[in-house]
UniProtKB/TrEMBL annotation:
<protein>
    <submittedName>
        <fullName>NAD(P)H-binding</fullName>
    </submittedName>
</protein>
<dbReference type="InterPro" id="IPR016040">
    <property type="entry name" value="NAD(P)-bd_dom"/>
</dbReference>
<feature type="domain" description="NAD(P)-binding">
    <location>
        <begin position="7"/>
        <end position="192"/>
    </location>
</feature>
<dbReference type="Pfam" id="PF13460">
    <property type="entry name" value="NAD_binding_10"/>
</dbReference>
<dbReference type="InterPro" id="IPR036291">
    <property type="entry name" value="NAD(P)-bd_dom_sf"/>
</dbReference>
Length: 216
């Protein structure tokens, strides 16, 4: 399975490309914003496509041509304003969904936020609510599409080394999860068609990743 990783140069994205390249079933194509970012992925044996997420749907669709799946793991980051959150986390996500459809790619994995409910938008701090709202509507757009989707909602992300063990269910208590484990969960989801149509929260836990994914 050939997988386009959108937001590949991000912290989860880099782990994900590495995780995919270590799978005997998957092969990654890294969608990056700048050519100078390509060397990291070429060393992993991954193909690259230089496309700005704020460019056209056609440009993203071209990168997705020949792919079997798309993973959206891009994010505006915590230090940008509401405008960039709107352009990346919402518009960028929706454009990627439409680009996947245009390119004939059926499988789509979305890296979302831990809680994207309407209640979470209302309860979030003012600085964080635009991000939650963007993720909420991006998730809703994906669920309304005809794509074979999986929506992963990780808890507080850390840079700790992955443990290979998580808790993954529709609802779990808030907690932390290493980015490396999130990436390995995404890889496991891509390898397991039973995750199609599933949306789940993800934190650190005591269940092996493949077992946790199989139990969704």
């Amino acid at each position: 399975m050939n997988v386009l990783v959108v937001g590949a140069n991000g912290q989860i994205g880099k782990h994900l490309v590495s995780s995919i390249q270590n799978s005997d079933k998957l092969k990654a194509k890294a969608m990056i914003r700048k050519e100078e970012q390509a060397s990291y992925f070429k060393e992993l044996g991954a193909e690259t496509a230089v496309v700005d997420l704020e460019s056209s749907i056609d440009a993203i669709a071209k990168a997705a041509e020949g792919m079997d799946a798309v993973v959206f793991t891009a994010g505006s980051g915590p230090h940008t304003g509401k405008d960039k959150t709107m352009m990346i986390d919402l518009d960028g996500a929706v454009k990627t969904i439409k680009a996947a459809e245009q390119a004939g790619v059926k499988r789509f994995v979305m890296v979302s936020s831990f809680d994207t409910s309407r209640e979470a938008i209302l309860e979030a701090p003012e600085s964080f609510s635009p991000y939650v709202a963007a993720k909420h509507y991006a998730d809703e757009w994906l669920k309304a599409s005809d794509l074979d989707y999986t929506i992963v909602q990780p808890g507080m992300l850390t840079n700790e080394e992955g443990t290979g063990q998580v808790q993954a269910q529709v609802e779990v208590d808030r907690g932390e999860v290493p980015r490396q484990d999130v990436a390995d969960v995404i890889t496991a989801c891509l390898e397991n068609d039973s995750t199609i149509g599933k949306q789940f929260q993800l934190v650190g836990g005591n269940t092996h990743i493949k077992q946790a994914v199989n139990s969704l």
